[in-house]
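lol so apparently i was supposed to do this last week
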Amino acid sequence: RRTPTIVQSSPGLDPIVDFARSCVRGLYADPRTLESRFLYDAQGSALFEEITRQPEYYLTRTEAAILAAHAAEIRELTGPTRILELGSGSSLKTDHLLKAWLERGGPTRYYPVDVSSAALSAACAGIRSRFPAVEMVGIQCQYREVFPLLAQLSPVLVAFLGSSIGNFAPPEMLAFVRTLAAALRPGDFFLLGVDLVKERSILEAAYNDQAGVTARFTRNLFVRMNRELDAGIDLDAIEHAAWYRQDQELVEISARFTREQSFRLTPPGRVITMGQGDLVRTEISRKFRMERVIPELEGCGFAAERVFTDSQRWFALLLLRR
Ligand code: AVJ
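anyway here it is w/ N,N,N-trimethyl-histidine bound
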C-alpha cells in the first residue's frame, strides 16, 4: 500500500500566532470581520462537507452535474494536462475530472491543495482508493503559496471549484486572478466554478439551512478561538446570520452576539468586548453575472475558452485559457 504523499509549505509563522493576530486585527476593525480561511480546521472542513449535502445548498450538486456532463469535453479541450485543484476539500467533484483524464489514457497527475491538513489527508486517501492509477501529491498551504510552483507543473489545468472565489472581495479577486495568470504559462488552463445571481429566497435558504449546519459552521470559528486561543467565549450567545445584499450581489455571513461579553485572545492577550447585537462578519459569498465576470477575467490575462452551465443557469463552470 502506497500512502498518499503530502507536502507542507515551510511554516513562516506559527499557525496559532497567525490565527491570533488575524482575529485581533479583525475584531478591532470596523466593521468587525474574521478571515474565512480560518473556518477550515478539521471540524470546519467536515461541517462544510455536511453543508454540501444539505437540500438547500444547491451549489455543489449543480456544479457536480455540470462537471459530470462536460468533463470529457473539458479533457478534449485541454489535452493531457496535470490537474492542480485549489481548495480541494473532499475532492468528490473532482472524480468526474479524474475519470475523464483516465479514460483518455496516459498518466493522470493530480495535485490537491488545501489549508486543512485533515481535509487534505482525507481527500488524498479517498482519491487513492477510488483511483489507484492517479499519480498524486497533496500540497498543504494557502493558495498564493502554490503560485510559484505552477510554472514547473505546466501544462496544467488549475481547478478552483465551488465558487470559492466568491469569498474574495472584488479587488482581492482581481489580484488573485492576475497573480494566477502571471504564474501560469501561455496555453495553461484555469477551470473556475462561479455561483450566479439568482432570486433572493433561493440564496438565503442555501446559507440558512433548516438543519442548522451552516450555523454550526459559523459558530465553529469561535469554538476554534476557544480551543486554540483560550478565548473563553460563551458560545451560547452567538447566532448565525446570513442575508443577500442585492446592492453588492453577495451573501454576507456573520456571527451575532446575543449578549454582551468580553474575552481575551492569547497571544497577544488583548481584551475584546462585544455588545449585544454586535456582528462579526465571517464570510462574503459573491454571486456573479456571466456577462460581467467573463470580461473581468479576460482583463486579467485569460481567454474564455468555453462556458458550461445548468438548465436553470444557477451555476457556471468557466474554462479559461492563459
Ligand atoms: C466554500 C466559499 C464556496 O460561499 O458557498 C457555504 C462557503 N459558507 N455555506 C460558499 C459556505 C456557508 C462556500 N464556499
